[in-house]
Amino acid sequence: MLEYDGINPGSISTTHQRSPLSKLLNRNHHLNVGRLCQTLIGSIVYLGCWGQLPSIANPSSMREQILPSIAQNSPPTDKQPPSEPNSIDISPEVIDGSPVLQKWLKGIPDVLDDIKNDPSFRTRVKVGYSQYPSTGQTGGIHLAVDDVFFGRSGLSASANYNSGGSRSAYGADVQYYLFPLGGYFNVTPLVGFRHLQTDKYSRDGLNLGVKLMLVPSRGGGADIALSQSWVGLGSSTETGLTTLSVGYAITNNLRLSTDIQQQNAKENYDSRVGLGIEWMP
To answer: How far apart are CA 124 and CA 208, in angstroms?
Structure first.
């Protein structure tokens, strides 16, 4: 066996032989790495416990820091919180005196349907005093029911009676309004029966005519009616009736009314003036 510089080749093994210095350095290296890891982990745990980092040591801190950032970065949604309905500060006295306000506070009405089907003038029950200037200023009474509607159609019925001294008259008519009931102006033909009694003549028979309605204030606030009709039209006893009526509301259901009537026959010209109060159901 050969020897090289005093080294016995047989003494060289196939495994790596570390010197004591190398082993010491290697051990110190592992110790330093371990201490560094311990220091780093301790810092993270410390900071996490005090709420500085969102670490697993403080889950609530993680939640408090992450969730607000998500909320800030999330896109705004289109849904808006429902707004409270606007309240209207109106005194009860004003509301009680205004049918229009009462209707709108219940809900937004269908204005087009109201114009077509809801009458701008209401059914009226009348009682009052009548005076007959052409018959020695005789006084009397008059009763009437005007425009009792059949459903929401333009068909209505009216009846009236008046009496004083030798004068009396009564009758009933059917009307059909030609224009939308909710308008400020309307026209209707009249078809009915009429009896007329004076100190000079007596008439009864078919009553035919036309009536115009002017409504300055809808809902019964005010209206003006002008009618012209003929009893026994075309006969030798034809008698014309011209009537002007005006009504004005003083409360939601009560009105003051006045009417002037001219009665034209061959025998005589008679007149009547009435003043009354009307109730609107």
So the answer is: 22
Q: Which amino acid is at 106?
A: K
Run of H or E residues at 66: helix 59-73
As a whole number of angstroms, the distance between CA 235 and CA 203 comes to: 11
For the four alpha carbons of 244, 265, 271 and 231, in that order, the dihedral sign comes to negative
pLDDT in tens, 242-260: 999 999 999 999 999 999 9
**Whether 191 contacts 169, CB under 8 Å:** no
d(CA 146, CA 148): 6
Contacts of 112 (CB under 8 A, 6+ apart): none
Alpha helices in 74-159 (DSSP H): 92-96, 99-106, 111-117
State pLDDT tens for residues 255-276.
999 999 999 999 999 999 999 9
Phi, psi of 188 (to 5 degrees): -145, 140
Residues 6+ apart with CB under 8 A from 212: 185, 186, 187, 225, 226, 227
Element of type H or E holding 129: strand 124-132
Two tokens, residue 142: 């008059």
Higher pLDDT, 184 or 42: 184
167-176/185-197 β-pairing: antiparallel
In Å, how far from its chain's centre is CA 228?
Answer: 40
Q: Does residue 22 or residue 200 have the better pLDDT?
A: 200
Say how far apart CA 175 and CA 156 lie, in whole Å. Answer: 5
Of the candidates 103, 156, 162, the residue with the CA atom closest to the CA atom of residue 128: 162
